[in-house]
Amino acid sequence: MGLGLRPQHYQDILGGGGGTVDWFEVISENFMIDGGPALANLMRVRERYPIVMHGVSLSIGSTDPIDVDYLARLKKLVGILQPPFVSDHFCWTGVAGLNTHDLLPLPFNRETLEHICARIDQVQVALGRPIVLENASTYVSFVNSDMAEWDFYIAAARKTGCALLLDVNNVFVNAVNHDFNAESFIDAVPAEFIAYVHLAGHENNATYIIDTHDHPIDDAVWRLYERLVARVGAKPTMIERDDKIPSFKELADELDIARRIALHGAPARKSSAL
Ligand SMILES: [Fe+2]
Questions:
Q1: Cβ partners under 8 Å of residue 173, min gap 6
Q2: 135 CA distance to ligand 1 middle (Å)
Q3: pLDDT band at residue 67, thresholds of 50, 70 and 90?
Q4: Closest to 153 (Cα-Cα) out of 141, 168, 140, 165
Q5: How confident is the model at residue 17 (pLDDT cuts 50, 70, 90)?
Q6: Rounded to the nearest whole angstrom, what is the distance from the C-alpha of residue 14 to the centroid of ligand 1?
Q7: How many CA atoms are closer than 13 Å to the CA of 16, on its beta-carbon side?
Q8: Ligand 1 centroid to residue 200 C-alpha, Å
Q9: Cα(266)–Cα(200) distance, rounded to whole angstroms?
Q10: In terms of DSSP H, where are the helices of the chain?
Q11: How far is the CA of 240 from the centre of ligand 1 (A)?
C-alpha cells in the first residue's frame, strides 16, 4: 500500500514516524535530472522504500513521434530507481511540438487503438520492460469513439502486454462526466491486466466532477474499490493527494482503510472520521 511522495512529508518518512506505508510513487519528470537536492532526497527515501515511477509526458496518444530523448532520460531514471512499475497515462498531452501539460482524452476506436499499440510497443522495446498506463479522468469525449473506454484499455493490454494502472476515482469521475455505469468498468477489467490501483478525492459539482486530488476519497469510490477487490483480490494500491495536502499521518490513516479492504474485503470505511 503506497502514497504519492510529497516533499512536505520527507521528514516523517525519513524519520520513520507517522504511519505504515510500503512504497511511494513519484512523478518521473520531477527526477529526470542530473543530480541536486531533489534527487538526493529521493535516493534517501529509495534506500528504505520501493519507488514506483509515474510519468505525465509520454503522450502515448499523440501523432507526434515519441520523444526518444525523453525515453532515454526516463530509462536512465528507471536504471537508478529500479521501480516495480513504470507508468503513464492513456492520453495525449500535445501535438505539433506543443505541450499542453494536460492529459487530453483519446477517441476510443480501432484506428486510435492501432496507433497507440504501435507506440506502446516502441516504448516497451526502448525501455526493455512492459509499461503501465492509467485511465485518465476526462471532461470531453469524441463523437467518433465507438468502443467503451474499458474495452479500449483491455484491447491495448491484450495486444501489447502493457498493464493498466486502474484509477478507481477516475472511473467514477468519467462515469459521471460521460454518463456510463462505473460498475461496468470496474467489473470488466481482467485481474491479470491490473498492475496497481490509484485512489483519490475529487470535487463533485453534481452534474460534473473535477478530478482535483484535494479531498479525502469519496464513499462512492470506496464502494467501487471494495467491489474491485472482491473480484480481483488485493492489488498494490495507493492514494494520490496533490493539493490541500494533509499530514503524513492523516494520509497513512486513509491508506489503512484501503489496506483493510484489500486484506479483509469487508466494508471498513469510517467516512465520518475522515
Ligand atoms: Fe491517478
A1: 137, 202, 209, 211
A2: 8
A3: very high
A4: 165
A5: low
A6: 25
A7: 2
A8: 7
A9: 20
A10: 10-15, 37-46, 68-81, 110-127, 149-160, 168-178, 182-188, 219-232, 248-264
A11: 7
